Amino acid sequence: MQHETHHGQHDHHTEPAEQASHPDHAEQASHAGHAGHAGHAEHSGHSGHSGHSDHQPGGVSWGMASRATLHCLTGCAIGEILGMVIGTALGWGNMATMVLAIVLAFFFGYSLTLRSVVGAGVDLHTALRVAFAADTLSIAVMELIDNGVIALWPGAMDATLSDTLFWGTLVLSLAIAFVVTTPVNRWMIGRGKGHAVVHQYHR
Predict the structure, then answer these.
(1) Torsion of CA 156, 160, 164, 168, to 10 degrees
(2) Model confidence at 68, in pLDDT bands (50, 70, 90)?
(3) Terminal-to-terminal C-alpha distance of the chain
């Protein structure tokens, strides 16, 4: 009888201890689970924000935008000068000379981008699409400002290649076009467009 009583007391004491220990484990597991979920939630939150930050204009430096604009300006300047030289040499009128200069500006602007993209190992068809996407708006803005300054400057349209006014107006118009187009390129690159399309082929 005493032996049985002793076992009963032993069972009576161990059972609450086991009951007390199990809630602690369950609570710890519960906290661990919540911590894991919180970690995932925090991680996913950060990854979501990082995706948006890649396309913020503030993340694009003015230096990057300036280089993209200078790239377009080089092609435009070559086309502008060559078109005006050809038009003047052939005795064309102002309008015909300006149209030729604009066409050649687009041609050389696209050509410089094609050269760099094809050099990165891209096929010609894809390179053409990249060039059109990267340069069209930039060259269009630049040509609008450039030719607008020349058209509005008194006597500039009638100046010949030997006149200081011709070259002075051309340089001034290109400089103004550069200043105006740089913010446009910065805005486009910040949204993954413009020369941002070209940059991905040079990584």
Answers:
(1) 50
(2) confident
(3) 87
